[in-house]
Design a protein that fits this description.
Layout (H helix, E strand, L loop, with lengths): L1 H13 L3 E8 L2 E9 L4 H13 L5 H6 L7 H4 L2 E2 L1 H4 L4 E4 L1 E4 L2 E7 L2 H9 L4 E5 L7 H6 L2 E4 L7 H9 L2 E4 L5 E3 L4 E4 L2 E4 L3 E5 L4 E4 L4 E2 L5 H13 L3 E5 L3 H9 L5 E5 H5 L5 H9 L3 H26 L4 E4 L13 H11 L3 H10 L12 H6 L1 H21 L13 E5 L5 H22 L6 E6 L2 H5 L1 H4 L5 E4 L1 H9 L7 H9 L16 H15 L4 E4 L7 H9 L4 E4 L4 H15 L2
Parallel strand pairs: 6-7, 7-8, 8-9, 16-17, 16-23, 17-18, 18-19, 19-20, 20-21, 21-22, 22-23
Antiparallel strand pairs: 1-2, 3-15, 4-14, 5-9, 6-13, 10-11, 11-12, 13-14
Length: about 575
């Protein structure tokens, strides 16, 4: 009775769950020490809500006591901590996407898809992934790469899919031809079982038992409280109906980034995309684009339907064209046969598209300027899909209200004239479509701020742009001069040696990159007072970055679907702390 009374007294005094040490000697109770008890994510949520129910703390205090990052424990399978130590740890890379994955090792996308269809669970292992690997990544339980950082292709796509990923695991030597990877003397071959822990970056030999997450009613209460106090909107980065639905289920209020290039790699359209790239004339290119158009339009229709009136921000084609072409000899020969051209001609075209530094080369708005018909096809697909949804919802020309506002984002702008030139060509396409459907439709055309020069000249760009969205993956890359795909090789040395406090591709560098963002916000709104501004880089789901976005006055953050709950809680915490 004494012990229980003291427990209650200490808990009420400290207004938190206590970890109490005591002893009993000769029938007398002694309290040795007390401290706030450590707890898992489910326990931290339950304890916080219980303390509010007991009127010991407020809802605001309860929200501040939960670590947003710990919510990952509730959203992904995790390795059983009791079993983990029994298995051989063979390598450690970057914790690129949280959760646990167990499966048989495969080394290409085709095998991953085939084995999944046969009922097997697989782990896709690559030196590094490319957009061609999307189908295999989707089929896999997890992804392991030897190269790449926290914002490499593998990391970004895996987070969007909710797949665990360990990237930049440089201790492994991957041989996709021999279908094996080496770690010192250890050889892991195709079909061998491995386990990934995407939350720690650890790779284990064999099948480590996993624990499935449980979303309780307490989780919903915390999300409800978060939405009550947050001021930042929370959108998602989503390119597929599945990702969009997952994000909506987690409470996203729109799409902040739809990467249209991911749609191009689907099996039913990659041939037409390659035809478009290999075309010798604009007329030939338009014939190929006409095949892609209905597919793109259907993609947007599906997203608009799932988002049910919430905003959908669609980025026009961004990556360099060579990424869509095959790299392996067998694939090049197969495409040449399919297209009825010689292997030599196809190889010459592939070679002509090669760039020394493609991430700073012929991509983004530069593609749209060289080949405006590509962007024109995409905006026509967006406009037709939006008009059809509006018409179906009986929003006629005489009504002011509409069920959705498509937001079209032109990537990689660094110069005002780039944006103006493209906008002048895209607006007539949209207006002609609206006229054809006879509906009233509002739309926006804006840009990603991902080149330092765009931030420095944001006041000029804002005269034409309806919104800004910070693409902080590229903005960080270009500000630091760090390759986002190769920086994983040395960034751990930087953080270990305290040269950098955090990996800038994971948590925003507020001193340098953040200063450019603040400058762009201030300059943009000096021209257009109510300019709508968000962030869609991978840092948009990081709690520390979200706090900074609140401070500089952004309207929303956009993140991977499985980070939406984390962003909702972090946005609430940022607002509560700012009001103190």
């Amino acid at each position: 009775d004494q012990l229980i009374a003291i427990f209650s007294k200490l808990e009420k005094h400290y207004r938190d769950m206590q970890d109490v040490e005591f002893t009993i000697e000769n029938g007398k109770l002694y309290i040795l020490q007390t401290r706030s008890g450590k707890r898992t994510a489910p326990a931290s949520i339950k304890v916080a809500i219980d303390l509010v129910s007991e009127k010991l703390i407020t809802k605001k205090e309860a929200l501040l006591r939960i670590e947003p990052e710990k919510l990952d424990q509730l959203l992904h399978p995790t390795l059983d901590p009791k079993a983990k130590f029994k298995y051989k740890l063979i390598a450690t890379g970057l914790p690129a996407s949280p959760g646990a994955g167990v499966g048989e090792v495969v080394f290409n996308a085709e095998t991953a898809v085939k084995w999944k269809e046969a009922g097997k669970k697989v782990i896709l292992v690559r030196a590094e992934t490319s957009p061609e690997d999307i189908s295999g990544m989707n089929a896999a339980q997890g992804i392991l790469t030897a190269r790449g950082g926290m914002t490499s292709h593998a990391a970004v796509v895996a987070r969007g899919m909710g797949k665990c990923c360990v990237s930049g695991c440089e201790s492994i030597a991957v041989s996709e031809i021999e279908k094996k990877f080496r770690i010192g003397d250890l050889i892991v071959s195709e079909g061998d079982l491995i386990t990934l822990d995407g939350s720690t970056g650890e790779v284990f030999l064999g099948e480590v038992p996993t624990v499935n997450p449980e979303l309780s009613g307490y989780f919903g209460t915390i999300m409800e409280w978060s939405d009550k106090y947050k001021k930042l909107g929370v959108r998602t980065n989503a390119d597929t109906p599945r990702d969009a639905q997952v994000a909506r289920d987690f409470g996203a209020t729109g799409i902040g980034l739809c990467r249209t290039e991911h749609m191009f790699f689907q099996a039913d359209r990659i041939f037409a995309v390659r035809q478009m790239i290999l075309a010798d004339t604009a007329e030939q290119r338009k014939v190929a684009l006409a095949k892609i158009f209905p597919m793109q339009k259907n993609d947007f229709l599906e997203l608009f339907k799932i988002m049910k009136g919430f905003p959908v921000k669609i980025r026009l084609l961004d990556p360099p064209l060579h990424e869509f072409l095959p790299k392996e000899k067998a694939d090049i020969e197969a495409l040449a046969r399919e297209m009825g051209i010689t292997v030599e001609k196809l190889q010459d075209k592939i070679d002509s598209l090669h760039e020394q530094n493609p991430m700073m080369g012929h991509r983004g708005c530069r593609l749209g300027i060289s080949f405006p018909e590509i962007f024109e096809m995409q905006v026509r697909a967006i406009a037709e899909a939006a008009c059809e949804v509006i018409k179906k919802n009986n929003v006629i020309a005489s009504e002011a209200k509409q069920s959705l506002i498509p937001e079209i984002m032109i990537p990689l702008i660094g110069e005002f004239n780039e944006f103006k030139w493209l906008k002048d060509r895209l607006v007539p396409v949209i207006e002609d479509t609206i006229k054809k459907y006879g509906v009233k439709m509002t739309y926006e055309i804006g840009t990603m701020i991902e080149i330092p020069r765009a931030a420095l000249t944001a006041d000029a760009i804002a005269t034409e742009a309806d919104f800004f969205s910070f693409g902080t993956n590229d903005l960080t890359q270009m500000t630091y001069g760090f390759s986002r795909d190769d920086a994983g090789k040395f960034l751990k040395d930087y953080t270990d040696k305290k040269i950098l406090a955090e990996d800038p591709f994971k948590t925003l560098d507020t001193v340098g990159v953040g200063r450019l963002m603040k400058m762009a916000v201030d300059l943009g709104r000096s021209t257009k007072k109510k300019l709508h501004i968000g962030i869609c880089g991978e840092q948009g789901g990081d709690p520390a970055t979200i706090k900074y976005c609140h401070q500089i006055g952004l309207n929303y953050v956009s993140c991977s679907p499985y980070r939406v709950p984390i962003a909702r809680l972090a946005a609430a915490q940022a607002a509560i702390e700012a009001d103190k």
